[in-house]
Structure formats: structure tokens, C-alpha cells
Amino acid sequence: GAVVSQHPSWVICKSGTSVKIECRSLDFQATTMFWYRQFPKQSLMLMATSNEGSKATYEQGVEKDKFLINHASLTLSTLTVTSAHPEDSSFYICSNSRRTGGATDTQYFGPGTRLTVL
Amino acid sequence: AQSVTQPDIHITVSEGASLELRCNYSYGATPYLFWYVQSPGQGLQLLLKYFSGDTLVQGIKGFEAEFKRSQSSFNLRKPSVHWSDAAEYFCAVGRGSTLGRLYFGRGTQLTVWP
Fold first, then answer.
1. Per-residue exposure over B24-54, b if at least 16 CB sit within 10 Å of its own CB, e if not
2. From A29, A64, B32, B89, which residue has the greatest number of CB atoms within 10 Å?
3. How far apart are CA A68 and CA A65, in angstroms?
4. CB-CB neighbors (< 8 A) of B97 in chain A
5. So what's the pLDDT on residue B51?
6. Each residue's pLDDT expressed in tens, for chain B with a length of 114 residues
């Protein structure tokens, strides 16, 4: 069964609005989650590392004020795209990890959320 | 800087034929290497991973991959492809101490002819 769920699976919004995407770890408590975005026919790009109880760590070039990440519990991380614009349209994917670091960690990916900004 | 190259955007094979998907990486340290498969509506699924040791890695669904340090490659192979293998395949390298921080190639779309 699914280990990671995302909600919604797709969303369409108007330019200038904010959209919240949820990522839930179903089978275990995840102290760390990751957010990726994927453009059509392109690879996944890591956006940020979400740590439970602390601030997220953003990759270079990712606007932290635009992509707000909250990891309020061990099973839920949210990504809010603030003041969304058409260029933010993408496929957003989250993944989780049982613990940070360690060569034996396994990553589980959510099914993704398709965001379309009109 | 780390990078992952999948030179083949799209590959078409007949069912029952052998398959090899290419992956080259550029990474300063010893790489952690992965192959994932992505099917529509489903999350990425890990096929196999390499951290150290035996350079020939066995994965799920009959896939295997061979790490060749001299060629900076980690090619994915399957001796006989099934129609259900049609999907997008991604090679990835782990960066940093946290393995969730993955650097992905652009993917190879596999089409299987009956």
C-alpha cells in the first residue's frame, strides 16, 4: 500500500492566489520530508528539505517566501505556493525518510500534485 | 557540481527483448546511486540502489544495474522486457549526508511494443 499520500492530486487556481499541498507519511513517523518539483518531460528538482519542528532547508534558487513549508507533525508536511503565477505550474512531489542520514534509508515518494495556475 | 545524465529521452523495445537504460553521473565523492520508475498516477518506485560493495546490483521486477566507476556509469538492464515495464525511468544520485536529497536525471521514457 501507499506509504506517502498527497492532497490534492491536482489543483487549478487563479494567478495571485495561494495553494496548499499536503504530504502525509502513512506508515511511519517521518522526521524528514522532501519536496520536489517536476516540469513536463523533465527531471525532478529538489526544492527543500522539511524537518519536523524546525525550519525547512531550501535548495539554492528556491524562494523560501514563495514556497512555504511547514512540518508541524511527524506525519504531515505542507507546501504552500504563495501568490501563484503561471510559471509555478508544475508537478509537486514529496518524499519521506524514516530518519535523517544513513546509507540504508529508503525514500518513499508520494503520487504528486499537479498544479495549474491560470 | 553533481549531475546525472540520461542520454536517451525515449526508448522503444519489443516485448521479450533485452533492455539497457544508460545513466552517467558526475559527483565528487563516492556516489549513492538509484534507479526509480514512475508510472502515471503513482509515486516513484525504487527499483534498486547502490551504496558500496558488489558493483552489480539486483533490484525488483527483474532489473539489475552495474556500477562502473571508471566510466561514471550506472546502467539499468533487464534481460526480457514485459509490456508492464512501460514507464518513465529515472536515475538519481544521492547528495549530502541525507539521502532524500536526490539529484535526478531527466528520465527515459520506455515504450514496449507487443
1. bbebeeebbbbbbbbeeeebbebbbbbeeee
2. B89
3. 6
4. 100-101
5. 85
6. 678 999 999 999 999 999 999 999 987 677 889 999 998 777 889 999 998 888 999 999 999 999 999 999 999 999 999 999 999 999 999 876 666 788 899 999 999 998
B41, B90, B100 member nearest A43 (Cβ): B90
Q: Which of A88, A111, A71, A110 is nearest to A18 (CA)?
A: A88
**Could you count the other beta carbons within 10 Å of the beta carbon of residue A39?**
12
Is B100 in contact with A107 (Cβ distance < 8 A)? yes
Assigned C-alpha cell, B72: 561514471
A residues 45-64 closer than 8 Å to B (CB): 45-46, 49
Q: How many residues does chain B have?
A: 114
DSSP B30: P
Determine whether the interchain pair B99/A42 forms a contact, defined as Cβ–Cβ distance below 8 Å. no
